[in-house]
Amino acid sequence: MSVAAADLAGDTGYAHAQGCAEPVSMTVARHIACSGRIQRVTSGENGRIVRIGTEERVFNRHQRRAIALRDGGCIIPGGGVPAGWCEIHHVTEHAHGGATHTDNGVLLCWYHHRFLDRIGWRIRMNQGVPEVMAPVWFDASMRWRAVTTSPIRLRKKVQRT
């Protein structure tokens, strides 16, 4: 995938995927980038490579296990998708400086990961614990709520009450 730095920063223009003759929208490019390995290569106007980044944008297997234990599955209420079928979402997008760290990753099913920005759910981290705010059509109170389907965290929550 290649995209001009100005287009990436301004979320405008198009990107180009290897092996694909037609350009793709920035939305498609973000989705591809979100689930794949990305290595940033910055080139100057004359084509000279001026900087090569690393591929530390993808969560590793140890981080995935830890996030799966914390979240249990897709964190959007009602989804019921188990951890093994989920993808890890950067709460603060990697492209906007979000770290590839357990404090910035949450489990989402394929559907919620692809359409999160369109369906109204909001996600934030509160001291390393994910919280969601439902869209008004789902919960008129619009409150932030800690979420999990992790058996360990659910048992602790029940024991506290």
What does this structure look like?
- It comes from Microbacterium saccharophilum.
- This is HNH endonuclease.
- Keywords: Endonuclease, Hydrolase, Nuclease.
- One of its GO terms (molecular function) is nucleic acid binding.
- The chain has two domains: 2-52, no CATH class; 61-160, no CATH class.
- The model has no long low-confidence stretch (mean pLDDT 82).
- 29% of the residues lie in helices and 22% in strands.
- With 161 residues, it is α+β, with helices and mostly antiparallel strands.
Low-confidence stretches: none
Terminal CA distance reads 50 Å
- Average of per-residue pLDDT values: 82
- Structural class per helix/strand content? alpha+beta
Strand order of the largest sheet: 1-2-3
Total helix count? 5
**Inertia-based shape:** elongated
Tell me roughly what share of residues is in helical segments. Answer: 25-40%
The arrangement of helices and strands along the chain is EHEEHEEHEEHEEEH
Biggest sheet layout: 3 strands, antiparallel
Overall tally of domains? 2
Topology, number of strands: 10
Strand content: 15-25%
Q: Indicate the radius of gyration in whole angstroms.
A: 18 Å
Pfam families: HNH (PF01844)
GO molecular function: endonuclease activity; nucleic acid binding; zinc ion binding
Domain HNH nuclease: 62-114
Protein name: HNH endonuclease
